[in-house]
Specification:
The complex is a heterodimer of chains A (274) and B (662).
Chain A (H helix, E strand, L loop, with lengths): L8 E5 L2 E3 L6 E3 L1 H16 L4 E8 L3 H11 L9 E6 L6 H11 L4 E5 L11 H9 L3 E2 L2 E8 L2 E7 L5 E7 L2 E5 L11 H6 L1 E6 L6 H5 L20 H9 L15 H15 L6
Parallel strand pairs in A: 1-4, 1-6, 4-5, 5-12, 6-11, 7-11
Antiparallel strand pairs in A: 2-3, 8-9, 9-10
Chain B lengths: L1 H27 L9 H20 L3 H26 L5 H24 L15 H20 L4 H8 L1 H24 L4 H11 L37 H8 L6 H5 L1 H4 L6 H13 L1 E2 L17 E2 L20 H5 L6 H5 L6 H16 L6 H11 L22 H4 L1 E7 L7 H16 L4 E3 L9 H5 L3 H15 L3 E7 L2 H10 L9 E3 H10 L4 E2 L7 E3 L13 H9 L23 H4 L7 H12 L3 E4 L2 H8 L7 E4 H8 E2 L21
Parallel strand pairs in B: 3-4, 3-5, 5-6, 8-9, 9-10
Antiparallel strand pairs in B: 1-2, 7-11
Helix pairs in contact in B: 1-3, 1-7, 2-8, 3-4, 3-5, 4-5, 5-7, 7-8, 8-9, 18-27, 22-23
The chains are: A alpha/beta (274), B mainly alpha (662).
Amino acid sequence: MRPEEQGIDVAVLVSVGRHPITGRARRADQDARGLELALGLERQLPGSRVSLLHAGPCAEESEAALRGYLGMSAGTGLETLTLLEQAEGSDAIPALAEHLAAAPPQLVITGARAERGEGSGLLPYALAERLGWPLVNGLAAVEKIEKGVATLLQALPRGQRRRLKVRLPAIVSVDAAAPVARQSAFGPARRAGIEATPVPAEPDRELAAWQLAPARKRPKRLKIVKAASARERFKAAAAKAEGGGGQVLTDVTPEQGAEAILKLLKEEGVLPRG
Amino acid sequence: MLETLLPILIFSALALAAIGAMRRIRLWRQGRPAQVDLLRGLAAMPRRYLVDLHHVVARDKVMSNTHVATAGGFVAAAALMILVHGLGLANPILGGLLLAASATMFVGSCFVARRRRNPPARLSKGPWMRLPKSLMAFSLGTFLITLPTLGILPAGLSQVMGHWILALALAAVLVWGLGEMFFGMTWGGPMKHAFAGALHLAFHRRAERFGGGRSSGLKALNLDDPEAKLGVEKPADFTWNQLLGFDACVQCGRCEAVCPAFAAGQPLNPKKLIQDMVVGLAGGSDAHYAGSPYPGQPVGDHAGSPDGPIVLSPTGHEGKALVDAETLWSCTTCRACVEECPMMIEHVDAIVDMRRHLTLERGQTPNKGAEVLDNLIATDNPGGFDPGSRLHWAADLNLPLMADVQQAEVLLWLGDGAFDMRNQRTLRALIKILHAAEVEFAVLGTEERDSGDVARRLGDEATFQSLAKRNIATLAKYRFQRIVTCDPHSFHVLGNEYGELGGHYEVRHHSTFIAELYEAGRLAFAPWKGGGVTYHDPCYLGRYNGEFDAPRNVLKALGIEVKEMQRSGFRSRCCGGGGGAPITDIPGERRIPDMRMNDVKESGAELVAVGCPQCTAMLEGVVDATAEVRDIAELVADALVARPAASGDVRAPQPAAEEMTP
């Protein structure tokens, strides 16, 4: 058997989630989907090793939530979670990047966005930048991994899929398009180990300066339907939400692209006009 | 010649039986340890056998008389035979008794034979078909060999009896009888039920059930040891007395006849399940099972061993283990099988033990199970509703909150039906009744959580205990005399299952409480003007808690004459809503609630009174039903009239009494 087929090392970055209704700590939905994807890979490529990685404080509430991921390990090789112990409010990115660079896995899977804290969704990008690895977002499936190249299926809006070939190591992020996470079982969750390693905390000064408020639903642009007949109304309801005034820019310089984005932001009132 | 042969035969049969007994006991001892008072159990055993077991058997009069004659005759004949023929005490009194005993046994075995001529489907065939012949061989053989001993045969016949061919034939018949009755008893023949059954009754895990007691609450799982494996993965994970209980099964199939899942064509047959556990504890395949299979599954595909998994884990890919997970998840925990079992085997305990493993260790609760459990963990209710909205339905009712009043006569436990629009109607009706009777009550409001019933039946003991402990802590903050609830599941869990975790309460089902209020003269009803009414006993009120009368008394007080369904009272058929069955939703050929509504139709009633939110939901979900579904509280609330003036405060003139139905 060629070494490429002997399985790969997958690291799954997991966070402490937050239930949307009660706000209780839980396994984050997207991160759990990421772990599900990794466990699926473990079955697909025998010999693969899945490791769980979390950077954050070691508290009782967060531990219960992290054990939620370990509860998915029944019948798999997963046994422990590596906790890079940091004080609350520290920047997780340097710690994660350092840990991943020290013993690089072939694939890093993470959720697209955390359920608490900043939740900006920038972590995978920042990590990819630091490590210099390619990043694929919105992953739906890993089709195969051969000779250090992964064939991935990326989810696009409205159920579309795009097949991508990516050279490993790479970072992939998953959102609601990835397979639903399996049930978390109490027994394995309780037995599994959490290996805590204190890491130098780098306080996230910018975050400390922020003011946090509960998120509001983003306003949606109303679709004005001017339909005379039932058929037109049906077509309007079933049609894709058209961007309308959008434009596709191809083969432009970064400056031109930035110019176009700035112009749009000003038009939308995100940036002051002038 | 027989005189020398008989003691040899008897004592070698006894010796073989003893060896078999040791082997069988070793099989049972593979199980986990259990706290059982052995001596007290053994001392109580004859009473349990003769009284408690007989009560259950006596539901079928012919069979119970048959059993008394056969079993009583056998025990007496066997004991006397050892004395007379084994030890040679040819005393005429003993001999006479032996003749009488074996004759009684013979008569009994004739009835056994008669039942086996056209056996109902629920009875197992196979080796059980030869049992009446074996019983006859034993009783007839014993009778005949005793005649010459007593010398009551005419001289001529005595000589014939002494003839070696006849003696040999007699000896052969006797060997057959002894083989079945002594050897087969401990080596796994049909008579095993007598040996294992007697010990099972002695070492039963719910000794409270004997002597008219009731014990239906599930036993708590010890979660203290983090390294311990949770639930039952393999047959040896049952406690030894559970294994013994499985081995006691007589395969009479009464459980099969009452099982709603079996009737619905779901892959569960309680009898087969117990027999599969017996296969598991001895090791082997189910190919020798001679009763009805799990619906839709052929016999012979499954095999297991004491230390092999009962349900195949999905990583094992192909093949089959002892039972399929669907079998375990088909059970509605209605307890009809337990109620009906003449051996008092605890099927539901065993099923929940195995479910605990699937949920807590493997994370394999099927269908919506995982979602419901996640909701219970995150929001304290199975529907995933905002716990803060628990009292939204009662925004206009100004319900007194326990947090405000601190103490009340009655704590009204709303249950998760508070989130369900149908059940909110029942709750409103109940509150109207409480107001009418001027009951001082309060609710926990948003402090209330799910009782943990569904989590526990789905095998998630951890979530159950977490919910229970938090509920107990909440309840401990307030003073109240009793809890009243319209949900029999909460009623059962609060009343029977919180005790083990430190919560002891006096709990009333609303039907019981309404009956008490009526008897105390605190409620008055207008006469019933509707059509025929029948009453559906909820499993968790009836079989689990023995409350059959109060709802009927309430209906009677309303002026309703209940048209009983054929299966009512302790034999009531489940609505299909218990045990998380609607959540795990194992497909069958029919739906359980459809069958129940058919029972209602056969009773001729136009309305079925219920007393459980689950039953209401299940029965109302039946398409093209011939009867309406109403909770008892709704019927009572509709019939409420002002009480006849007791102290001069007449609120309304007595209406309705003179009204005529058009």
